[in-house]
Specification:
By secondary structure, this protein is mostly helical. It contains 13 helices and no strands. Helix 9 runs antiparallel to helix 10. The protein is about 80% helix and about 0% strand. The chain has a domain of about 70 residues. The mean pLDDT is about 90.
């Protein structure tokens, strides 16, 4: 694969190597072939299908091996809890996460996951979620996702200033956290702090120029501080982004 010059030969070789390695349970060889396909043919439909199928199979094999070699480890128990969570079986997932905390009260991300479950319940339990997320931050003050979820909880309750503080901290903890900038700008807009909303929203639309929501929020902030021309430009970009998104949806169908 590495030495061949022809694209067609490289493609076929890598595909065959991945399939043979998977059938022989040679995970490292399979991964090398898949990485080559992903790098050289990133938009090929068959490559994308193969990546999805084989990476899923590799993950399944790794989880089975983890269960076999260390069934009572926190990692195995966390994997089981995540499976319950993915199924929407909140009670079993929570019981499993609690079991992990009984073994090690300082395990990272467990309180965060419990908080997320409380927010996913029907009806949600925001007060319990806040407790868990705050516990997570006591263990790991750098958890940007926990800060973000605290912000989301406050935003859903209309606590704009509280939400903005959490979103601001999340964006500082992880400068690449695009959603935190959008949520911060939206919260500041809702609080009537339009001039403060401009900077995070400008940051967001640079990171996610295809998102119509970012352009709409930024256009609103510009309009409310009297920057009419820039507001109109953002509304036009919102229309373009919406049209492109709708076109992509029709094409995918």
């Amino acid at each position: 694969m590495a030495r061949t010059a022809g694209e067609a030969t490289k493609y076929e070789s890598a595909m065959l190597a991945a399939r043979c390695a998977m059938s022989l349970d040679q995970s490292q060889t399979a991964a090398q072939a898949l990485l080559l396909l992903q790098r050289e043919f990133p938009r090929d439909p068959e490559v994308l299908y193969t990546l999805t199928h084989f990476y899923s199979e590799l993950a399944s094999r790794a989880s089975q091996e983890l269960a076999a070699v260390a069934p009572s480890s926190p990692q195995a128990e966390k994997l089981e809890a995540e499976a319950f969570e993915a199924q929407g079986n909140w009670d079993k997932a929570m019981a499993q996460y609690r079991k992990i905390l009984e073994q090690d009260s300082k395990q990272l991300e467990i309180h965060y996951r419990l908080g997320r479950i409380f927010l996913s319940k029907n009806p949600p339990e925001p007060a319990e979620a806040v407790k868990e997320l705050q516990e997570e931050l006591k263990i790991d003050p750098t958890n940007a996702s926990a800060e973000f979820m605290l912000g989301e909880t406050a935003r859903q309750m209309g606590q704009w200033d509280v939400a903005a503080n959490h979103f601001a901290r999340a964006s500082k903890l992880d400068e690449g956290f695009a959603e935190a900038y959008l949520a911060l700008g939206m919260s500041l807009n809702s609080a009537g702090k339009f001039s403060d909303a401009i900077a995070p929203l400008e940051r967001y639309v640079k990171m996610q120029p295809q998102d119509a929501a970012g352009h709409y929020q930024l256009g609103t902030a510009y309009a409310r501080v009297g920057r009419k021309g820039e507001a109109e430009r953002q509304i036009e970009l919102q229309r373009q982004a919406t049209t492109e998104s709708q076109g992509a949806d029709r094409h995918s169908k």
